[in-house]
C-alpha cells in the first residue's frame, strides 16, 4: 500500500499531527483535496470520505458514486490515479 493510501486509511478518524503515519503523505492528500487540517488535527474532506469508501476503508449504507473532482490535481496523485484505474 502506498504512503498516501496508508495515511488516508489512518484518517478515517481525526488524527493529531504528532500521531500521523506520514506528514509528507498527509500534505499530498491536503494538496489534492482529500484531507483538511485545523488546530493541529488532520481529517477527511468529503472527497476523502468518498475515496475511503471506494477503497473499502469505510462502508456506506448506500452505494456511493465517486466522481473525480474537476480541478487541477498533482499528476502524481496516487489516490486519484488508482481510483481512475479502478472505474
Keywords:
single chain, alpha+beta, three-stranded antiparallel sheet
Provide the low-confidence segments as ranges. Answer: none
Order of helices and strands: HEHEEHH
Average residue-wise pLDDT: 82
The tally of beta strands, per DSSP, is 3
Distance between the termini: 19 Å
Number of domains: 1
Q: Percent range for helical residues? A: 40-55%
- Count of individual helical segments: 4
Task: Output the radius of gyration.
Answer: 12 Å
**Beta-strand percent range:** 5-15%
Summarize the structure in words.
- The structure is a single chain.
- With 87 residues, the protein is α+β, with helices and mostly antiparallel strands.
- The chain has one domain (3-76).
- The protein has four helices and three strands, in the order αβαββαα.
- The protein has a three-stranded antiparallel β-sheet with strand order 1-3-2.
- Strand 2 (35-38) and strand 3 (41-44) form a beta hairpin.
- Helix 1 crosses helix 2.
- The longest helix is centred in the first third of the chain and has 9 residues, at 23-31.
- It is globular and about 30 Å long.
Can you summarize this structure?
The protein is an alpha+beta fold and 87 residues long.
Q: How do the strands and helices of this protein lay out in sequence?
A:
Layout: H1 3-10, E1 15-16, H2 23-31, E2 35-38, E3 41-44, H3 46-54, H4 78-86
Antiparallel strand pairs: 1-3, 2-3
Amino acid at each position: 500500500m502506498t504512503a498516501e493510501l496508508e495515511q488516508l486509511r489512518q484518517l478515517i478518524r481525526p488524527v493529531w499531527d504528532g500521531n500521523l503515519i506520514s506528514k509528507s503523505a498527509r500534505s499530498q492528500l491536503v494538496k489534492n483535496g482529500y484531507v483538511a487540517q485545523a488546530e493541529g488535527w488532520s481529517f477527511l474532506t468529503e472527497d476523502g470520505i468518498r475515496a475511503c469508501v471506494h477503497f473499502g476503508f469505510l462502508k456506506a449504507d448506500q452505494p456511493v458514486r465517486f466522481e473525480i473532482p474537476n480541478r487541477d490535481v498533482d499528476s502524481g496523485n496516487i489516490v486519484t490515479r488508482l481510483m481512475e484505474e479502478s472505474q
